[in-house]
């Protein structure tokens, strides 16, 4: 299809409670920059149920307009209802560019949307620019397990769509006084639209935060921990820091911790403010999932471990000495 | 269940090195493997077959050499394998690839019967896009379940366990459907001598653009909405600060000071 305007859309992904996830608010930052170059509005797209806080968050983080589809049937993400609603919005309003967070949801919906609209989708972007020559969005993304970067254009079809890794862009400070034009669209979910049935939903770990994509600090453990019980060292430090726990593939494959915690190419892609890698050698596959972190701290006894190549702060030492001592320092500081 | 597994032959990205002089990928000597996630998809299908019976057809699009990957799949659960190959398909992006595959699936179904489940790996380890599976589902107008880690066959539906960001969920999805598989809790099975022999001798039918109906303007480079503008190798090495002390506690103290002075951690 052809774009009807130069608007840039950002999908404001919502949680089960209707609030905005970080990733959509983060994307309003590069969205603003690109929308200004393209000469269009920055539009937030909110689909969910009970989305008031997500709508105001999108306004506070810079959206000019917000399109809202709010109905109970959208309370839980389903591929079919969300794709249909999103697609109807695109057909009605005709934006030129769409940014979607590369979360499980974004990566489930994005390709269906792009295919239905017969347009190009660039997955898992880490850099966004405008190609000076053509005026198209230049989507840059890692490939080959992080060994290669590729810049992709979608020159002939609209909208041009990309999914962007969470944590790559930083959320700006909210301006709660900011107002945006809010347009509500009524898109009912017809019976039979959703063909899948939810039988069971389980949050794997009681009380422990494992939503790694949203975490500000992550303490990750790897092969160097030696056994499952030693994850207690990682957990203790994470607790003291208010951090989430992550793991390398080696630790998951050894059965020390469930796959939901795995960071890396076959796990999750994270971009916290601080990533602390404990006993992780830093194979390219692990780095593919965490190299976008703002600050990387590595603790490893092998001074040649590749993790030190990308670490901002590296401790060459025994993690069984360093972790408890660091945890102790933190607890001590808290007590004061 | 009549099951189709879509696989891709990929370079083993764990073996790829960067030429330090030219700063480009060294592809020579890098072994080709069956995409890791596809091997999990195949094993998941094989487990359904073990319990509920059925057939497993394997399909890939690629050059003649991709037959090696198909044979590997026949060693560990596949019953029959098809190669989809044509120069006209070269340079396809995900939209064009999924279109070609969806047309090829129709052609294979004419010979093998309608598929109840089409499995794909979550993503290929070279492209990492995770798009082809959902796009096949869209072309076929099938329901999809992504990030699957387990599945059992029911009556006219499949129960799929899928990973979510904070745990997992179990969905019932009616057949026919597309399921994309992430890292499963179990490893793919090993081939037996007998299965290896059979795979070696197996006929691998090839489908070219002449063998099924498709709109060639939607295939290959010209059918691909996305274009690669440039590729480059990322600069990864940082000049980090290294702390090395005899005593771990001393090192921890120094690290603590650095983290605090840079405002990277806060006392809760």
In brief, what are we looking at here?
The complex is a heterodimer of chains A (336) and B (268). Chain A has 336 residues and is α/β, with parallel strands linked by helices.
**What class do helices, strands and sheet pairing of chain B give?**
alpha/beta
Silhouette of chain A? globular
Quaternary structure state of the chains depicted: heterodimer
CATH topology of the largest domain in chain B: Rossmann fold
Strand order of the largest sheet of chain A: 5-9-4-1-2-3-10
| CATH class category label of the largest domain in chain A | Alpha Beta
* Straight-line distance between termini of chain B: 54 Å
Range of strand content of chain B: 25-35%
Structural class estimated from helices and strands of chain A: alpha/beta
| Reported CATH architecture of the largest domain in chain B | 3-Layer(aba) Sandwich
Largest interface summary: A-B, 100 and 86 residues
CATH superfamily of the largest domain in chain B: HUPs
State Rg of chain A: 21 Å
Biggest sheet architecture of chain B = 9 strands, mixed
Q: Please identify, by name, the CATH architecture of the largest domain in chain A.
A: 3-Layer(aba) Sandwich
Order of SSEs of chain A? EHEHEHEHEEEEEEEEHEHEHEHEH
Run of helices and strands of chain B: EEEEEHEHEHEHEEEEHEEEH
As for the CATH topology of the largest domain in chain A, it is Rossmann fold
Describe this structure in words.
The complex is a heterodimer of chains A (336) and B (268). Chain A is of the alpha/beta class. Chain A has two domains: 8-184, HUPs (Rossmann fold, 3-Layer(aba) Sandwich); 212-335, Rossmann fold (3-Layer(aba) Sandwich), CATH 3.40.50.1220. Chain A is 29% helix and 25% strand. Chain A is built from nine helices and 16 strands. In chain A, a hairpin with a 6-residue loop joins strand 6 (127-130) and strand 7 (137-143). In chain A, helix 3 (79-93) packs across helix 4 (104-116) and helix 5 runs parallel beside helix 9. The longest helix of chain A has 17 residues, at 22-38. By secondary structure, chain B is an alpha/beta fold. Chain B has two domains: 2-223, Rossmann fold; 238-268. Chain B has six helices and 15 strands. In chain B, the strands form three sheets. Chain B has a nine-stranded mixed β-sheet with strand order 11-10-9-12-8-1-6-7-13, with helices on both faces. In chain B, helix 2 runs antiparallel to helix 5 and helix 3 (94-112) crosses helix 4 (132-140). The mean pLDDT of chain B is 93. Classes of the chains: A alpha/beta (336), B alpha/beta (268). At the A-B interface, helix 4, strand 5, strand 7, strand 8 and strand 11 of A face helix 3, helix 4, strand 9, strand 10 and strand 11 of B.
């Amino acid at each position: 299809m052809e774009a009807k305007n130069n608007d840039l859309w950002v999908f404001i992904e919502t949680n089960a409670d209707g609030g905005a996830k970080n990733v959509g608010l983060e994307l309003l930052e590069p969205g603003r920059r690109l929308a200004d170059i393209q000469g269009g509005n920055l539009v937030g797209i909110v689909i969910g149920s009970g989305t008031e806080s997500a709508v105001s968050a999108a306004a506070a983080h810079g959206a000019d307009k917000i399109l809202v589809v709010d109905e109970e049937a959208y309370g839980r993400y389903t591929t079919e209802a969300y794709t249909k609603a999103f697609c109807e919005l695109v057909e009605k309003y005709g934006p030129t560019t769409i940014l979607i967070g590369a979360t499980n949801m974004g990566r489930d919906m994005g390709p269906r949307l792009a295919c239905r609209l017969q347009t190009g989708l660039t997955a898992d972007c880490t850099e966004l620019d405008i190609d000076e020559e053509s005026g198209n969005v230049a989507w840059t993304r890692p490939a080959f397990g992080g060994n290669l970067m590729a810049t992709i254009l979608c020159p002939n079809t609209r909208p041009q769509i990309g999914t962007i890794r969470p944590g790559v862009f930083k959320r700006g400070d909210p301006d709660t006084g900011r107002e945006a034009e809010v347009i509500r669209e009524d898109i009912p979910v017809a019976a039979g639209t959703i063909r899948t049935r939810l039988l069971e939903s389980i949050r794997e770990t009681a009380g422990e935060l494992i939503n790694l994509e949203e975490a500000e600090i992550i303490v990750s453990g790897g092969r160097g921990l030696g056994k499952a019980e030693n994850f207690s060292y990682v957990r203790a430090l994470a607790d003291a820091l208010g951090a989430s726990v992550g793991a390398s593939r080696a630790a998951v494959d050894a059965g020390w911790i469930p796959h939901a915690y795995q960071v890396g190419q076959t796990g999750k892609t994270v971009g916290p403010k601080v990533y602390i890698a404990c006993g992780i050698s830093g194979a390219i596959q692990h780095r593919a999932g965490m190299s976008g972190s703002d600050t990387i701290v590595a603790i490893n006894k092998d001074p040649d471990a590749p993790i030190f190549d990308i670490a901002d702060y590296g401790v060459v030492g025994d993690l069984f000495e360093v972790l408890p001592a660091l945890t102790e320092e933190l607890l001590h500081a808290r007590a004061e | 269940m009549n099951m189709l597994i879509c696989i891709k032959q990929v370079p083993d990205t764990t073996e790829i090195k960067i030429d330090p002089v030219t700063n480009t990928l060294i592809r020579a000597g890098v072994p080709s493997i069956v995409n890791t996630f596809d091997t999990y998809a195949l094993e998941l299908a094989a487990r359904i077959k073990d319990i509920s019976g059925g057939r497993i057809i394997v399909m890939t699009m690629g050059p003649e050499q991709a037959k090696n990957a198909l044979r590997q799949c026949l060693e560990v659960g596949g019953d029959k394998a098809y190669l989809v190959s044509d120069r006209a398909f070269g340079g396809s992006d995900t939209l064009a690839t999924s279109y070609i595959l969806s047309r090829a699936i129709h052609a294979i179904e004419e010979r093998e019967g309608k598929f109840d489940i089409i499995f794909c790996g979550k993503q290929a380890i070279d492209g990492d896009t995770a798009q082809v599976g959902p796009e096949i589902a869209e072309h076929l107008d099938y329901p999809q379940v992504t990030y699957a880690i387990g599945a059992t066959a029911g009556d006219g539906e499949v129960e799929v366990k899928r990973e979510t960001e904070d745990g997992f969920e179990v969905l019932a999805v009616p057949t026919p459907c597309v399921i994309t598989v992430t890292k499963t809790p179990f490893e793919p099975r090993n081939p037996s001598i007998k299965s290896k022999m059979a795979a070696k001798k197996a006929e691998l039918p090839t489908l070219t653009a002449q063998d099924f109906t498709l709109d060639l303007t939607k295939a290959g480079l010209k059918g691909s909405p996305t274009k690669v503008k440039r590729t480059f190798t990322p600069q990864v090495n940082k000049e980090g600060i290294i702390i090395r002390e005899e005593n771990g506690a001393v090192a921890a103290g120094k690290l603590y000071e650095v983290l605090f002075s840079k405002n990277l951690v806060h006392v809760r």
